[in-house]
Amino acid sequence: MDITPLGDLDDLVVGGGVVGLSAAWRLARAGRRVAVADPAPASGASHAAAGMLAPVSEVGYTEEPLLRLGAASLERWPAFAAELADDAGLGSANALDYRADGTLDVAFGADDLAALDELAAFMDKLGLPVERLTGRECRRLEPMLAPSVRGGLHAPDDAWVDPRRVTAALLAALRHLEVPILTSRASLLPSGLPSGLPSGTAVRPASSGAVRLADGREVGAGRIVLAAGAWSGELAGVPVRPVKGQIMRLRSPQPLLGRCVRGMVHGLPVYLVPRGDGELVVGATQEELGFDTRVTAGGVYELLRDARELVPGVTELEVADVVAGLRPGTPDNLPLIGPDATSGVTLATGHHRGGVLLAPLTAAILLGEEPELGALCSPRRFTNRDER
Ligand code: GLY
């Protein structure tokens, strides 16, 4: 464990995934004294994630508030990626594999086509740029698509990024800013508790929150920011549950696709995300199995079966990697960002399918930059329904 003198901290971020690391980086950049606690930073859901920055293609009909959050965060991504690449000493956002080449949502049957029509009408109503395409037009954009694709919806503004490169860059940027990373599990202490530990073992400023690390050390801060993803429910008793996703990376000598492609196969959504180096990410299952991160034969079978329906050529590719991650789901699919009256900490969790997309906006909300969008994410919606 790092034995770094911490001094008086403004923010201690519990959780070193893309949301926690982004928050720590932006808070430190804004001049706040910050530390991060995580036993294995960048190894959870952010390691599994495909990195789609696709508010339009991921949205459901009842999820207009989520769409607003996603669209606002997508707008922030180009500057976020450029500044991160700069702070991490990487040169340009290309090093994060940031690309804004759009998503193509495709349909096979009459029901799928009708669903795409409805989605197109909904997007039009919201003033979002989408284009309805015939099967032939889809194949002109993506020649490797199956001949049975009958139509599609093109969202030209959707983007994507490689989350593994993003978290590596965030860790490098934090190192440059001398933000301590405490590689230890943290449990929350009720605010204002006397430590009970011999003097010298605890660092507790005039704090409004504190955590106990696995070695018994206590660390206090003006604000504890809980960004522990699927584990946030267990740590703070907030309504966050794990939603398992199995995801596969295939290796291709040359890129098979020019943009993200997604579709419904056998009633299940599947997506394919191309990387600059020829890798193709195929995701993802959605399973309610608690804290289960096993990669299963059934999960791998489903992913390959459904990906092959969209792009038959995937079966020629080499399997590079299959992992399972745990999305932090909430009852209404919206994240929880802001002070939580019950646990006394500030939440930055519950991002479900959108952690990578929503990381820049979450950091901005924690900095008080987006009060209106921040109100949509307030944890008060679950503790005090009158204030919604
Ligand atoms: N954002 C895609 C997923 O969670 O599978």
Question: What tags apply to this protein structure?
Answer:
D-Amino Acid Oxidase, Chain A, domain 2, binds glycine, 6-stranded mixed sheet, 2 domains, FAD/NAD(P)-binding domain, 388 residues, alpha/beta, globular
Present the secondary structure layout.
Blueprint: E1 11-14, H1 18-29, E2 34-37, H2 45-48, E3 52-53, H3 55-58, H4 64-87, E4 103-107, H5 110-125, E5 131-134, H6 135-141, E6 151-155, E7 159-160, H7 163-176, E8 181-182, E9 186-189, E10 202-203, E11 209-213, E12 218-221, E13 223-226, H8 232-236, E14 241-251, E15 260-265, E16 268-274, E17 279-283, H9 297-310, E18 318-329, E19 336-339, E20 346-349, H10 355-366, H11 371-376, H12 380-383
Helix pairs in contact: 1-7, 1-10, 4-7, 4-10
The structure holds glycine.
Glycine binds at residues 50, 52, 245, 283-284, 327, 353.
Strand content: 15-25%
Gyration radius, in Å? 21 Å
The CATH homologous superfamily of the largest domain corresponds to FAD/NAD(P)-binding domain
So what's the overall shape?
Answer: globular
Distance between the termini: 42 Å
Q: What value does the average pLDDT take?
A: 91
CATH topology of the largest domain, which one?
FAD/NAD(P)-binding domain
- Give a quick account of the main beta sheet: strands, pairing sense, barrel closure: 8 strands, mixed
Number of domains: 2
Query: Which structural class do you get from the secondary structure elements?
Result: alpha/beta
Strand order of the largest sheet: 5-6-4-15-16-17-14-18
The total of beta strands comes to 20
Bound molecules: glycine
Helix tally equals: 12
CATH architecture of the largest domain: 3-Layer(bba) Sandwich
Poorly predicted runs are 192-206
CATH class of the largest domain: Alpha Beta
Helix content: 25-40%
